[in-house]
């Protein structure tokens, strides 16, 4: 049974299609693996009974020849997606006990495609964090550790539970959300593939909102082909989401070739930030050489407003969070702590229901939106955002995709940066610009740090051109040939 959890999503799908394995066997193998890996704290809620029932239904459809795109594939769902009848918490005490009466569009599409729900994955509270240490349900541990060292490492965030589950082989794939890098950065830290599609490619309906103009759902998987497959099931127009694009979903699976001969790949000078570790710089150079060897043309480009991206993001995102989180008042759902009057009830509920990082961002956002500061902060940040988008538009007149590092470091120790919010925010320095511009980006595992931890490379593409991003990602994947397992898993193999 343990061999089943080592299949890729694509391999499992093929084995199910030829009836070499059953969906029930696949689900049981993952449920057993989840039980043995609870020390990672990757899941907030496990759903074994539902998983077995969904697997039985998948087996019946497979027997009838009615298989969907993801028939029988067991997935972890980030606990930011509302799931009908299953606890949905956003990693926050204020939503503890909330069981939605409806389904998010992304998860509904996954169930319609035949996928199996293993449970709800842990995350930073309300997706606010870069290490998965702010969850009310405790931090997630990265399945990777430094060789011969047991000190736990962070999995990245906010989709750290999803990334850890995929890397630890306790889910074949997972959903995540990416606001400023929350899919791509944990993918890099955990040695897997993570993709943020173009803003508007996947519906946001039923996803607990953080920053509405930035949040976007995407897949976390172990290969680029798996990523294309899972994204194809997740994407599509939704009339219930006004930001959802009314565009046909391309056949990313059928079109995935990894052939990039003749493509022009940009290397942005501004991403060579001060203090960048030498090993990150070398990996980036190696990635460019791999793409050149595959027939691509490498060009130096400029994205001049890059240095303003992080400050702009940390005004825009908290401002939108301040607005979105105003709805959590203890009146309609989730936590309610009674006070002597209505005002005190609000204050107690929000004061005790939100964690420190959420409070920090709500206060920053409220300040940025307040009278006398709106123009000076929020409006100026939006102008900077437009300049950043224009930089990318200008660059894409010269190149077809852009190659950068995913994160400025490998995974760090649990608790290492918890007392320094600015140091934590700097983890998103390479991912935030594409988020502000609404562009697709993928992180592909490309090598190991000097301490033996995974490092990722990021590919950014034009809006709606996920196909090119996936092809360049596939070319990197083939060249890197990254097959190293987290060390505990490797010893058990």
Structure notes:
The protein is α/β, with parallel strands linked by helices. The chain has a domain of 262 residues: Alpha-Beta Complex (Amidase signature (AS) enzymes). Helices cover 39% and strands 13% of the residues. It is built from 17 helices and eleven strands. An eleven-stranded mixed sheet has the order 1-3-2-4-6-5-10-11-9-7-8, with helices on both faces. Helix 7 packs antiparallel against helix 16 and helix 10 packs across helix 12. The longest helix has 22 residues. The chain is globular, with a radius of gyration of 21 Å. It starts with 8 loop residues before the first helix and ends with a helix.
Give the SSE map:
Elements: H1 9-17, H2 23-36, E1 43-46, H3 48-64, E2 74-78, H4 105-112, E3 116-121, H5 160-167, E4 173-178, H6 184-190, E5 193-196, E6 216-221, H7 224-234, H8 252-255, E7 264-268, H9 278-293, E8 297-301, H10 309-324, H11 342-353, H12 356-369, H13 374-395, E9 401-405, H14 421-425, H15 432-437, E10 441-448, E11 454-461, H16 466-480, H17 487-492
Parallel strand pairs: 2-3, 2-4, 7-8, 7-9
Antiparallel strand pairs: 1-3, 4-6, 5-6, 5-10, 9-11, 10-11
Helix pairs in contact: 2-3, 7-16, 10-12, 10-13
């Amino acid at each position: 049974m343990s061999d089943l959890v080592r299949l890729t999503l694509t391999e499992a799908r093929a084995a199910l299609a030829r009836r070499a394995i059953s969906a029930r066997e696949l689900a049981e193998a993952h449920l057993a693996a989840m039980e043995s890996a609870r020390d990672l704290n990757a899941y907030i809620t496990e759903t074994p009974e539902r998983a077995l029932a969904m697997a039985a239904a998948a087996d019946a459809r497979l027997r009838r020849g009615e298989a969907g795109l993801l028939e029988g594939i067991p997935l972890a769902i980030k606990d930011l997606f509302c799931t009908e009848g299953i606890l949905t918490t956003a990693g926050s005490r204020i939503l503890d006990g909330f069981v939605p009466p409806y389904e998010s569009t992304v998860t509904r599409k996954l169930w319609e495609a035949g996928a199996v729900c293993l449970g709800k994955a842990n995350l930073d509270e309300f997706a606010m964090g870069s290490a998965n240490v702010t969850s009310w349900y405790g931090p997630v541990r990265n399945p990777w550790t430094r060789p011969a060292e047991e000190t736990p490492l962070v999995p990245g965030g906010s989709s750290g539970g999803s990334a850890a589950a995929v890397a630890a082989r306790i889910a074949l794939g997972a959903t995540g959300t990416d606001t400023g890098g929350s899919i791509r950065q944990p993918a890099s830290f955990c040695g897997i593939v993570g993709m943020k599609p173009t803003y508007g490619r996947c519906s946001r309906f039923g996803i607990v909102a953080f920053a509405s103009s930035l949040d976007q759902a995407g897949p976390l998987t172990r290969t680029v082909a798996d990523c294309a497959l899972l994204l194809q099931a997740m994407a599509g127009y939704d009339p219930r989401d006004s930001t959802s694009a009314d565009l046909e979903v391309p056949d990313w699976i059928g079109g995935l070739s990894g052939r990039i001969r003749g493509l022009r790949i940009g290397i942005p000078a501004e991403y060579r930030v001060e203090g960048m570790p030498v090993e990150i710089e070398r990996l980036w150079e190696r990635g460019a050489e791999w793409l050149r060897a595959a027939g691509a043309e490498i060009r130096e480009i400029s994205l001049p407003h890059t240095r303003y991206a992080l400050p702009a993001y940390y005004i825009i995102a908290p401002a939108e969070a301040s607005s979105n989180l105003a709805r959590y008042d203890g009146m309609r759902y989730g936590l309610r702590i009674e006070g002597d009057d209505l005002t005190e009830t609000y204050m107690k509920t929000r004061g005790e229901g939100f964690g420190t990082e959420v409070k920090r961002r709500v206060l920053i956002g409220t300040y940025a939106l307040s009278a006398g500061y709106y123009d000076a902060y929020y409006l100026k940040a939006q102008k900077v955002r437009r300049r950043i988008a224009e930089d990318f538009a200008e660059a894409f007149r010269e190149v077809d995709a852009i190659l950068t590092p995913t994160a400025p470091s490998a995974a760090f120790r649990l608790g290492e940066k918890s007392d320094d919010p600015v140091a934590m925010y700097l983890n998103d320095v390479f991912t935030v610009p594409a988020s502000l511009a609404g562009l697709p980006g993928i992180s592909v595992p490309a090598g190991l740090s000097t301490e033996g931890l995974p490092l990722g490379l990021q590919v950014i593409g034009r809006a709606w051109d996920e196909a090119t991003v996936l092809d360049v990602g596939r070319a990197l994947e083939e060249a890197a040939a990254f097959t190293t397992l987290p060390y505990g898993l490797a010893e058990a193999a």
